[in-house]
């Protein structure tokens, strides 16, 4: 029943309050008709596609209503307040492998809900783990749940620096039988070629909906000295020369 003047704008609020970590779908439909109840003239109203959902054709010809149809996807995102970043530290020109555990707090699809007072844990880093592809389910908690993940960077410049130096692979998935929390275990490889300190965000999304974000910090320290060059003087006010080779790792 909202009346709109010509070129007037109308804001339509959409409220999303999910109770589980899964995607919800809805459709917002706006019906528009003339205030005087007359139809919009349309010469070829009889030839309109019968399956066209954006208009309602009157029996006596013309368009009775025009519809705007907007599909809405609600994707819940877990709130991670003051989460301590997982730190991956390595000396430049070396390689390090770390085990990163990320708990998917919130209500996981098909799992037992977590009490509201339970605090979210930080990402833990331990030694590399053996690969295990299946989630261990007991007591009928849930069926197999699939996840996709990626590393997001603060800028394209940081992405260009880190993308080829960092590798993350999901090696194991565990589920707590009491709380229903699923923990993903990643094997992270960091092989920096120069000193740096950059941040990234590990984004995990369930295929049924729901997003979790975990901060990460990659630190590369100064590399070891390649060699020590000793130049021995042959006498006062005389030049001493020593030669050495530099090998480039790229073209």
UniProtKB/TrEMBL annotation:
Listed Pfam families: Ig_CFAP47 (PF26579)
The CFAP47-like immunoglobulin-like domain, residue ranges: 78-220
Transmembrane segments: none
InterPro entries cross-referenced by the UniProt entry: Ig_CFAP47
One Gene Ontology term from the biological process aspect of the record: sperm axoneme assembly
GO CC terms, sorted: cilium
Superkingdom per UniProt: Eukaryota
Recorded coiled-coil stretches: none
Protein name: CFAP47-like immunoglobulin-like domain-containing protein
Species assigned in the record: Dryobates pubescens (Downy woodpecker)
